[in-house]
Amino acid sequence: MAHRIALNFEDGVTRFIECDGNEVVADAAYRARLNIPMDCRDGACGTCKSKCESGRFRMGDYIEDALTEDEASEGFVLTCQFRPESDCVISIPATSALCKSGPTVFEAAIADVRKLSNTTIGFTVALDQPEALSFLPGQYMQVSVPGTAESRAYSFSSCVSGGRADFLVRNIPGGLMSTYLSSQATSGDRLTLRGPVGAFYLREIRRPTLFLAGGTGLAPFLAMLEHLDEEGGPAHPVRLVYGVTRDADMVEVEKLARFAETMANFSYDVCVADKDSAHGLKGFVTDHFGAADLNDGEADVYLCGPPPMVDAVKAHFDRIGVKPASFHYEKFLAAETTT
Ligand SMILES: Cc1cc2nc3c(=O)[nH]c(=O)nc-3n(C[C@H](O)[C@H](O)[C@H](O)COP(=O)(O)OP(=O)(O)OC[C@H]3O[C@@H](n4cnc5c(N)ncnc54)[C@H](O)[C@@H]3O)c2cc1C
Ligand code: FES
């Protein structure tokens, strides 16, 4: 049976290949024309050493010089000896350019643009070749701004369904993409999307997990939750704390309510920083999680939001004196210009 292997390159580019349990990943990568690092192909040199982030596998023969016991216990593998027994995610210690790969280009059309609130816009794209697109929930694409040579990074806010995928965008007055989406976009407009990109993606849920979203940083969590829902729900409790500045920034809450209804292990809270808000829960996300949510450090934390939020959450870990087992974050940096 063929398994889906995500190869994550150092520059954040991800490529998916198919590999069945009788083949080693290195051979499957070569078949897909990806020159991942390789030398002896025999488990002797260690050149192909990579890190398996998730999934089950069998390793063939190799010597200690190529991969030590300690490295193996930390999740390092030799791709020339790696046979998958499930879908896997492997981090390759090289850039995609070095491996003669790179982000893939997808053509799409705008299918729908929705003003979700005064500050937030949702849009849906219909992909020309949806079957060619695979991504890990949490990853993003570089989306072209129609009529310009610019593009902007946007995280998927859904899985691909019926050839369509959603995005969630903060409407920044005067912003290039914001202006296009709020005043010009119409169904049928053509877009180019490059990717998928990013190391901020959902790993296997192995312990209690905390999702922290700031503003439109909710987007990747919507894709992650949809994925978890499709998988029958998480095996351990997942709690989302979604923080917004003002009431108008609070969007897609009905989707969160639906996920909480269908997934027994999922719960969420929304908090608003504005003191004059009519909302019940006020303050920042750091006011609404504590040591108990971090389960004595046996918890994974994912955060997506503006850069100051990342610093505030790190300072909060220090204040409460508990560090999570892992902390994955994505900063929605302003205006990354790519032409
Ligand atoms: C990895 C990644 C993923 C991202 N995913 C998303 C996403 O899913 N949803 C989303 O809404 N955004 C996301 N962003 C941010 C997005 O790429 C754009 O930067 C943002 O939408 C602004 O684009 P614009 O063309 O409208 O404004 P621009 O024309 O780029 O900017 C106009 C002005 O607004 C300022 N500005 C830009 N962004 C902000 C901001 N957030 N707050 C205040 N001022 C700002 C700029 O500095 C500039 O002065 C992501 C960014 C990164 C790096
Ligand atoms: S290529 Fe030498 S150990 Fe894999």
Reading off the top of the CATH hierarchy, the class of the largest domain is best stated as Alpha Beta
Q: Tally the helices: what do you get?
A: 6
Which outline best applies? globular
Order of SSEs: EEHEEHEEEEEEEEHEEHEHEEHE
What's the N-to-C terminus distance?
A: 41 Å
State the helical fraction.
Answer: 10-25%
Bound molecules: flavin-adenine dinucleotide, FE2/S2 (inorganic) cluster
Mean pLDDT figure:
92
The CATH architecture of the largest domain? 3-Layer(aba) Sandwich
Major beta sheet, specifics?
A: 6 strands, antiparallel
Explain how this protein is built:
This protein is an alpha/beta fold and 339 residues long. It has three domains: 91 residues, Ubiquitin-like (UB roll), CATH 3.10.20; 94 residues, Translation factors (Elongation Factor Tu (Ef-tu), domain 3), CATH 2.40.30; 123 residues, 3-Layer(aba) Sandwich (Rossmann fold), CATH 3.40.50. The protein is 17% helix and 33% strand. The chain contains six helices and 18 strands. The C terminus is likely disordered. The structure holds flavin-adenine dinucleotide and FE2/S2 (inorganic) cluster. FE2/S2 (inorganic) cluster binds next to loops. The site of FE2/S2 (inorganic) cluster has 13 residues, from loops.
